[in-house]
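BUG: 3D viewer hangs when loading the predicted structure for this chain

Environment: internal workstation, default settings.
Expected: structure renders.
Actual: progress bar stalls at 90%.

Input used:
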Amino acid sequence: MVTVSYREFAKLDLRAGTIVKVEVVEGADKLYRITVDLGTEKRTLVAGLRPYYEMADLQGKQVIMIANLEPKIIRGIPSQGMLLAADDGKTVALLRPDRKVENGAKIL
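Structure tokens produced before the viewer hung:
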């Protein structure tokens, strides 16, 4: 395991947001194009969640994302952040607030 300093960790901007749109990425077996509402803006993300979640299961879910991740082009789609998830080798589970918070709320 690689360790990071608190100073490095503190650079991450973790935010709560709600998934408002999910689309299949054409030609990709694992990818969804996901739109997340962060309260003041909506972000597009590309996530490899198709093997683990149906589109309807993601729609409307509040999630935690890294909001200040450098954008990356994936299959021609600008991905503007990353959803946080846990993977134990059998199951992938999105990390979510345990109660509803305002979209854009900072994760402490």
